[in-house]
């Protein structure tokens, strides 16, 4: 399910000191405009479909092409027609009347049922491990259960919910121009919920407003009162008390204690019973799979994993026969700051290629140091999100199941996220026209990148005339761009240097999943050509080189191992070899690579002579073993060249630059190894590296790399790679250089390994 919010901008005319910077407001662009036919609406991609490998029943029964014709609806546009009444007074009070007519089912106090649950009773009577033993007063434990339950939730208040919905509707109309909801996806949710399974919404987390925006949207669509699993770190005690009365849930701090702690066992039993009661009563639940915005750390939320683990436990215990998991995506033009899977079906049918995995140190360190050249065809083991809270009580195989399920649903949420106009504009300005671009040229490239996005199966969150879209987008990005009027009547759009480029880089990251496969492939090709052709050499010279399919596979694997899982979001049912083939297919489909038939080789399209009896040419998706390395040998005789079409050099450079922020940050982190003060704590060394990235940005203009999240990602990647090692210290774990990378020579090899993928 996808929700999009378009920002409202309080526009003011602003004149520059030199009089050259111009305004975009009511006077238009200051030049004669011709009529432009709207270019959107003729094609909408089919987004939000679940994985056919892991959830084939949902894939067949819940998704139909007809939903694409339903379009969008603005959920904050409430008029007289949205109520049962008519008249001039209704037009003035339509917000209030609308909130009164919302269906809010009666909310019963479930504290007694939670108290009588089997898990809580076992702890109270002392029959559970770590529970209340002999001699402990049961009434005292009962009061403790009531206290923990009061920390988790409170019975929702219908009057307060209606009052809050009315106030929130007025607030959202002041903050946003519109909030669009995909009608087709909402229809799928409503149809699937008729089967009686409880709904669990698993969402991305872009803003602190998500927790109040999504319940409002779903309440307006008749889903009911959404129970939201909030992060206590983002709420004050007063706000926490209000949110609990609106349906909020909070994990008690005792749930994070050690598994053998009596307080921890009791708290986890109460939380488990609360989730079981929610599932049994068919109340919808919202869980955020990403960390809150502004929190530095891994992308996958430890708190979200804990809540999802409780849901999986409830399904495995038979509390409900099934649960409907709904991936949710919220996208904004500008973030305001101060699709369906079935859980039980996934548990049974889930396939994973993560069975035989190796650490990044085992996979890449020998290659980086030049000790070997063979690339292991093995999956990478990389888990940055710690196991905390109720997830500690699960078995190891169940913890792995929850992690895989989280990655799978997060991948689906990102894939169904709508691309906003600000992300497209920021990408064009940052990676194609950092020195400036004429508005007439920008109009054509905005249209081109929008159509490329739609053709890759990603939807966009805007429509309308091209010039109006560009005008509105530039007005939203006004703090980060300068508009200069030239004598010919055109406008020159120039990104503002400094922090403005950092902001554009964050916006452009929303478009990266659309072109991620092609970007990985382009950087891998750049790495393959790095030792053969000078980077500044002409495109025709690079097109002469033959690239074997085996070499391409190996180079793509190297880059996949280097890039963090938080960025790639690979599906657990997809092996690295399968993803390598997907990357190669994308490069061929977009026209960057063309097959080269060498003398004596079998044509790529000729399948008649292949020996089917010797080996099957197909296998079940996800059924990959160590024998798949034979496919690399079969691919050795296939060759490709870079296409010589006129558009290919610019498109190749554009794709390479999409990954340049993270790769350049990693290269800068490698150059900082001999300058940093080690040993140091992780937070201390992160601050050192971040200050170095900021200083380098001022000197070399690499402002897109001056991001603290990139600094954290580089340090964690180097720790997994064995560049940095962690040892206990008096104030906590300390980072220091490993012996393998203590010399400048090994550090330079690391830098060269990373820089081969960067296209200047």
TrEMBL record:
It comes from the Eukaryota. GO terms for molecular function: O-acyltransferase activity. Signal peptide: none annotated. Residues 1-23 are annotated as: Disordered. Residues 199-333 form the Phospholipid/glycerol acyltransferase domain. SUPFAM superfamilies: Glycerol-3-phosphate (1)-acyltransferase (SSF69593). GO terms for biological process: lipid metabolic process. This is Glycerol-3-phosphate acyltransferase 2, mitochondrial. It comes from Bos taurus (Bovine). The lineage of its organism: Eukaryota, Metazoa, Chordata, Craniata, Vertebrata. The gene is GPAT2.
């Amino acid at each position: 399910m996808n929700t999009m919010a378009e920002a409202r901008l309080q526009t003011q005319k602003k004149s520059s000191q030199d009089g050259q910077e111009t305004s975009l407001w009511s006077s238009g662009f200051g030049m004669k405009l011709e009529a432009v036919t709207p270019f959107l609406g003729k094609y909408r991609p089919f987004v939000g479909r679940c994985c056919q490998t892991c959830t084939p029943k949902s894939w067949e029964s819940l998704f139909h092409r007809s939903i694409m014709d339903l379009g969008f609806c603005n959920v904050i546009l409430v008029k007289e027609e949205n109520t049962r009444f008519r008249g001039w007074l209704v037009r003035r009070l339509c917000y209030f009347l609308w909130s009164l007519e919302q269906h809010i089912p009666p909310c019963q106090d479930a504290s007694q049922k939670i108290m009588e649950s089997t898990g809580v009773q076992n702890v109270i009577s002392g029959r559970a491990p770590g529970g209340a033993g002999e001699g402990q007063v049961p009434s005292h434990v009962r009061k403790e259960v009531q206290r923990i339950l009061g920390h988790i939730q409170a019975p929702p208040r219908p009057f307060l919910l209606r009052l809050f919905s009315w106030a929130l509707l007025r607030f959202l109309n002041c903050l946003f121009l519109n909030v669009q909801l995909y009608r087709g996806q909402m229809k799928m949710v409503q149809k699937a919920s008729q089967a009686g399974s409880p709904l669990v919404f698993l969402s991305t987390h872009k803003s602190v407003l998500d927790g109040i925006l999504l319940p409002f949207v779903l309440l307006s669509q008749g889903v009911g009162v959404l129970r939201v699993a909030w992060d206590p770190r983002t709420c004050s005690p007063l706000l926490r008390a209000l949110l609990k009365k609106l349906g909020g849930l909070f994990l008690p701090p005792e749930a994070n204690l050690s598994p053998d702690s009596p307080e921890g066992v009791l708290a986890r039993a109460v939380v488990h019973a609360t989730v079981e009661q929610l599932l049994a009563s068919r109340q919808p639940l919202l869980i955020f799979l990403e960390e809150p915005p502004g929190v530095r750390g891994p992308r996958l939320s430890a708190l979200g994993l804990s809540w999802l683990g409780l849901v999986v436990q409830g399904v495995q215990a038979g509390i409900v026969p099934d649960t409907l998991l709904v991936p949710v995506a919220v996208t904004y033009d500008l973030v305001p700051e101060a699709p369906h899977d079935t859980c039980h079906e996934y548990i049974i049918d889930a396939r994973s290629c993560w069975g035989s995995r190796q650490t990044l140190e085992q996979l890449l360190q020998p290659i980086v140091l030049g000790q070997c050249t063979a690339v292991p065809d093995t999956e990478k083991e990389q888990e940055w999100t710690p196991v905390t809270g109720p997830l500690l009580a699960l078995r190891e195989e169940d913890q792995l199941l929850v992690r895989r399920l989280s990655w799978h649903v997060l991948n689906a949420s990102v894939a169904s996220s709508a691309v906003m106009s600000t992300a497209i504009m920021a990408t064009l300005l940052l990676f194609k026209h950092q020195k400036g671009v004429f508005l007439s040229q920008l109009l054509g490239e905005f249209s081109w990148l929008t159509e490329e996005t739609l053709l890759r199966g990603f939807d966009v969150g805007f429509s309308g005339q091209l010039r109006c879209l560009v005008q509105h987008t530039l007005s939203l990005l006004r703090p980060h761009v300068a508009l200069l009027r030239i004598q010919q009547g055109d406008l020159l759009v120039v990104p503002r240097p400094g922090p403005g480029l950092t902001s554009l880089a964050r916006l452009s990251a929303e478009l990266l999943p659309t072109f991620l496969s092609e970007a990985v492939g382009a950087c891998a090709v750049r790495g393959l050509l790095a030792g053969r052709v000078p980077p500044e050499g002409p495109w025709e010279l690079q097109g002469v080189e033959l690239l074997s399919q085996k070499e391409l596979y190996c180079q793509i694997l190297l880059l996949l191992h280097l890039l963090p899982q938080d960025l790639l979001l690979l599906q657990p049912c997809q092996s690295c070899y399968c993803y390598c083939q997907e990357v190669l297919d994308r490069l061929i489909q977009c026209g960057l690579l063309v097959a080269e038939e060498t003398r004596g080789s079998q044509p790529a399209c000729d399948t008649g002579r292949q020996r089917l009896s010797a080996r099957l040419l197909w296998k079940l998706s996800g059924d990959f073993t160590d024998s798949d390395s034979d496919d690399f040998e079969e691919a050795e005789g296939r060759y490709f060249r870079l296409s010589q079409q006129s558009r290919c050099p610019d498109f190749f450079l554009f794709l390479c630059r999409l990954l340049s922020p993270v790769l350049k940050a990693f290269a800068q982190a490698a150059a900082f190894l001999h300058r940093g003060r080690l040993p140091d704590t992780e937070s201390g060394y992160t601050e050192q590296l971040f200050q170095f990235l900021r200083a380098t940005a001022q000197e070399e203009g690499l402002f897109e790399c001056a991001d603290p999240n990139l600094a954290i990602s580089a340090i964690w990647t180097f720790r997994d790679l064995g560049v940095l090692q962690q040892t206990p210290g008096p104030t906590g774990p300390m980072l220091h250089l490993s012996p393998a990378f203590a010399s400048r020579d090994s550090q330079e090899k690391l830098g060269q390994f990373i820089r081969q993928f960067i296209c200047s």
